[in-house]
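hey so u asked for the seq, here:
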Amino acid sequence: MSKSPDAFRTISEVADWLGVQAHVLRFWESRFNQVKPVKRAGGRRYYRPNDMRLLGGIKKLLHEDGITIKGVQRILREQGVNYVASLSQGLDEPAEPAASANDNVVVPFTSKPAPANEQIKLDLGDSAAAKPKPETPAAPPQAQPSVPVPETASEKSEPEYLDESPLLGGIATQAWERTDFDDQLLKQIAPVAKDLRAVLDRIENRTAG
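ran it, structure tokens below
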């Protein structure tokens, strides 16, 4: 600083000395009632050397030691202003730069490849069409349990008397297969007419039942 150590400093000069913004000093003034700069006409603030040392100690506790505002308030109450001011940098020592030279180096970001089991596979539909799916061998046919097949209606409705004619034999079989009858055939049928009538009755009973 070009001014003498005992000279008053403006808020911008103190902010440059500490390496903070001017609004930070006004904020600290609202939180720590021990900070009392001289205010002139127009509200301009002027800081005395002791004010600067107090602000330097507060900055160290907050920014370097990581103590909270309430913690610094407790230290001011318990250990006093002089202790906090003793932590400050020298009035002729400029604030250390907030960022080192390495902070200006741009390091390209390279994403870490995910393990094979965590990579996501995107299927756009072409790969599925290009690669035929493996054929799945057909399962051997299983033996079906034998189930009795119920008789259909046509089988039930078939008249049972179709098998009755061969039982009569002889002239009765001939009469069974004919639709025209002459006298000679009727005479030949007469002896078995009684048996034929019984067969017909039985057929009618089965059909009706």
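The first strand starts at residue 9 and ends at 10. Residues 183 and 189 are 10 Å apart (CA to CA).
lmk if thats what u needed
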